[in-house]
Specification:
With about 90 residues, the chain is of the alpha+beta class. It is built from two helices and five strands.
Amino acid sequence: MARLVTDYTIVFLTDVVVVPEHQRKGLGKWMIQCVKELTDAMSGLRRIMFMAKNAPHAVKFYEELLYAKMHDQERSKVVFMSNRTPGLDA
């Protein structure tokens, strides 16, 4: 399951869940790619944001899908991440 909350200018990805028996099969990556297809179609969209577990494998997973940490959060249990859209760093 992947769940979004949006006003069509900002999207907050609230959940990405794959039940344990189906993890490591590419379903999480597929869901994020589906989210990207959906958000790419939103012409007025300015930013996609979400929180992710602050673990190297989790951060790397989202960075490979073109998301980045919004700022340095090394000591936190979760990190705030956002899409890498030029000019939206404000």
